[in-house]
Amino acid sequence: MKLTDMKIGDEAIIKKIKADDVIKARLVSMGIAKGNKIKLLDHTLQKQTWEVDVEGTRVALRKEEAQAIEVEQ
């Protein structure tokens, strides 16, 4: 499942990041890496921005970044 399929408050483990090298490097630099725990905190009404907690750090993601993250609950 993708991060964008999660409901607010759901927690999961990051399984894979399917993105080009630039986006992947940006996500990894924010702590979004395979094996880390991620929790969906909120998203905008039109689901353009996603707020997550990754290992205790809050991160805001754009829709295309959130869609690149595959998770497993």
Major sheet details: 5 strands, antiparallel
**How many DSSP H or I helices?**
2
Using DSSP, what is the number of strands? Answer: 5
So what's the CATH class? Mainly Beta
- Give the fraction of residues assigned to helices: 10-25%
Query: How many domains?
Result: 1
Structural class computed from helices and strand pairing: alpha+beta
Main sheet strand line-up: 4-3-2-1-5
How widely separated are the two ends? 9 Å
Query: CATH superfamily membership, which one?
Result: Ferrous iron transport protein A (FeoA)
Structural overview:
This protein is an alpha+beta fold and 73 residues long. It has a single domain, classed as Ferrous iron transport protein A (FeoA) (SH3 type barrels), CATH 2.30.30. The chain contains 2 helices and 5 strands; from the N terminus they run βαβββαβ. The protein has helices at residues 21-29, 63-67; strands at 11-17, 37-43, 49-54, 57-62, 69-72. The protein has a 5-stranded antiparallel β-sheet. The longest helix is centred in the middle third of the chain and has 9 residues, at 21-29. This is Ferrous iron transport protein A. Keywords: Iron.
